[in-house]
Specification:
Length: 277
């Protein structure tokens, strides 16, 4: 949620950041998570099956770069609250009531002395959260703008890299993303305004020890390829071995099929693998 006063509120329905005393630091665990780098559950091997990003420093860095941050936690039948100012606790963690729900709400106000602007672009958040919903099959993500200005894209059929057009005023603006078919829906979204060569989206999933891989693809009649690769749900726009492996495997599979079906033709001088992709 983009709050009217310039803050950002992020709410989830997970288990809630732990509020108990940390056995070593002797402070509430939530306070440790918000004030210490690498203190979250990203790398303990038990908390998350998948976690976005690479370094596990997200919420502590958000706190460090904010003039104010409020954390609300619901867990074990209770609700808890603690405010932070300039990255430090303004008051001790306090129990504020009872709750049947679970989850964490973080509201923060970015420091204008650090950032050139603290005005958030709705279109950028729209595209990123929609992308996250595509990448996490069945996950529901709601984006709400309470600032009183309508900047919601009029269409969602454009590729994520293209600028979205603003729609007419709606106050507040709210949209929910949820895609039960995940990457298959993502490819369908990308090809919505294009002429697909085959109706069905090709999709593959594979699991190994400590790794999972998903793939979805569909050829269209255009001359430009659109390949999007991700690691831990983060867009790897500069490529990597995972993208190189996909390209090599795709060419190998196509060539094997051509050989089996006697479809091979003499190779033209100067032809590249991208011509076949």
């Amino acid at each position: 949620t983009l709050v009217a006063d310039g803050g950002v509120r992020v709410t989830d329905n997970g288990r809630g950041i732990p509020v108990g005393e940390h056995p070593v630091k002797k402070i509430p665990t939530v306070e440790l998570v918000l004030t210490t780098l690498h203190a979250g559950g990203k790398f303990d091997g038990e908390s998350y099956a998948v976690s976005g990003g690479l370094h596990g420093v997200g919420v502590s860095v958000v706190n460090a770069l904010s003039t104010r941050l409020d954390v609300e936690i619901q867990s074990d039948g209770h609700s808890w609250f603690q405010p932070y100012e300039n990255s430090r606790p303004a008051r001790p963690l306090a129990q504020t009531g009872t709750s049947k729900k679970t989850g964490t709400t973080i509201t923060f106000w970015a420091d204008p002395t650090i950032f050139e602007t603290t005005t958030y672009k709705y279109e950028t958040l729209f595209r990123r959260l929609q992308e996250m919903a595509f990448l996490n099959k069945g996950l529901s993500i709601t984006l709400r703008d309470e600032r009183g200005k309508a900047t919601a894209p009029a269409t969602t059929t454009e590729e994520p890299t293209e600028a979205a057009k603003p729609a007419e005023a709606v106050e507040p603006t709210e949209v929910t993303f949820k895609y039960d078919n995940g990457l298959v829906d993502f490819v369908g979204h990308l090809n919505a305004t294009k002429d697909a060569v085959h109706r069905s989206v090709i999709s593959l999933e594979s699991k190994g020890i400590g790794i999972e891989a998903e793939l979805a693809m569909q050829w269209n009649s255009g001359y430009n390829e659109s390949v999007y690769t991700f690691a831990n749900t983060i867009n790897t726009h500069e490529g990597g071995t995972h993208e190189e492996g996909f390209r090599a495997a795709l060419i190998s599979a196509v060539n094997d099929y051509r050989k089996d079906q006697n479809l091979l033709k003499p190779v033209k001088a100067g032809s590249k693998n991208s011509d076949e992709r």
